[in-house]
Structure formats: structure tokens, C-alpha cells
Design goal:
The complex is a heterodimer of chains A (115) and B (115).
Chain A: E1 5-7, E2 10-13, E3 19-24, E4 31-37, E5 44-50, E6 53-57, E7 65-68, E8 75-79, E9 88-95, E10 105-106, E11 110-114
Parallel strand pairs in A: 2-11
Antiparallel strand pairs in A: 1-3, 3-8, 4-5, 4-9, 5-6, 7-8, 9-10, 9-11
Chain B: E1 4-5, E2 10-14, E3 19-21, E4 24-25, E5 32-39, E6 46-52, E7 59-61, E8 64-69, E9 74-79, E10 88-96, E11 103-105, E12 109-114
Parallel strand pairs in B: 2-12
Antiparallel strand pairs in B: 1-4, 3-9, 5-6, 5-10, 7-8, 8-9, 10-11, 10-12
The chains are: A mainly beta (115), B mainly beta (115).
Chain lengths: 115, 115
Amino acid sequence: DTGVSQDPRHKITKRGQNVTFRCDPISEHNRLYWYRQTLGQGPEFLTYFQNEAQLEKSRLLSDRFSAERPKGSFSTLEIQRTEQGDSAMYLCASSSLGSPQETQYFGPGTRLLVL
Amino acid sequence: AQKVTQAQTEISVVEKEDVTLDCVYETRDTTYYLFWYKQPPSGELVFLIRRNSFDEQNEISGRYSWNFQKSTSSFNFTITASQVVDSAVYFCALSEANTGNQFYFGTGTSLTVIP
């Protein structure tokens, strides 16, 4: 059983550059979530999809951030014009709609460093 | 307001000691779910347990046990006979039925088990 995968695992970029991260959820899961985790903090919700529909976005998701899930399978998170404050771990999780408690299963994360 | 509070930032115990990690939550929903995750140094969040608000029965799984008390809004986690492999950051999380399935995480408790 393949878990949630994320690519790349690490990304170093210069301020002002654009970056894109990919998440592949567990195959039968139709809900997909993005979280951001900074050092010493718990993950903070960014957005989630049910199939291809983006149903909720956090106020943390500024207009420089965009997420897509075009075919209801994998998802991408793009950050435009990166800033040093974007440095964090970006976590993806998936869950199955209809499971009683909708446990979210997390990927290994993409660690972003903006210089 | 913080929905999940983990007041213990760091805990150190000697191997084979028992340790309890505290979690206090806040919600107005009558239907909600509570979770514990483990985050080892590798970074991936590992699901440990979930509880729904209608099930206050405590649970034991091997060396792990959980004490859910609605009267005090607490969902504490005890590791019995701790081992070095238990060293990690542990997160408590809350999901409310009426707020779109996002998880609210605490700030985590870093546990170090000393051999």
C-alpha cells in the first residue's frame, strides 16, 4: 500500500523565484490537504480539495500561493515571488470521504528554504 | 484563540520510565474528532490514534494509552516503559465536523528518552 508522496523533499531557492511542489495522495483517497509547518510549531492548514474542487482556503494562503488538483489525483502547490518568510515544511495529507473519522495521512513533506 | 494546547514544550525521561503528554482542546461543536500524531526526526507525521466526541472510552495499544475526558476537554497520551525509539515530537489535533475537515494542531511536545 503506497502512502502519500511528495516531491521534491527539499528545495532551496532565491527570494523572488517561483517554486512548485507536488503531492500524490493515497490512491483511493478523494480528499487532499496542504499544511505549512514552521520550526517549533504544529502544522497550519492552508487548503483542501475534494476530488478536483478546492473547497476551503486559509487566510494564510496569500495571493502568491496557488494550489491545483486538475484531475482529482495529484496536486500541486505553487508559490510565486518567494519571500524568506515562506521558508517552512510544506506537508500534504489525504483522507477518504466517508470514512467515519476521516483520518488524514501525511506525506514526508517538502522543506523549502528561501535565501 | 488556540483550539489545541500542548503546554509541555519539551520532556526528557530516562528509558523505561512512564511519561504522559497533555492535550487540552477547545471547541463549541458537539461532534468533533481528536488525534495524536508522532513526528520523528525524519519529519513525516505518523498517525497514532483518533477519537470521536461520543466515545470517551479510554484506549490501550501496547505501551500506548489515551485518556479522553470531555469534562476537562483533555485527551492525554501516556507511554509506558518508554524506549529510545519513542523520542519524537508528538502532536495533538482537533477536527470539527462543522469547520471543513481541517485539522487544528497543537504546538507539539518534544519527547527525549535518555538511554
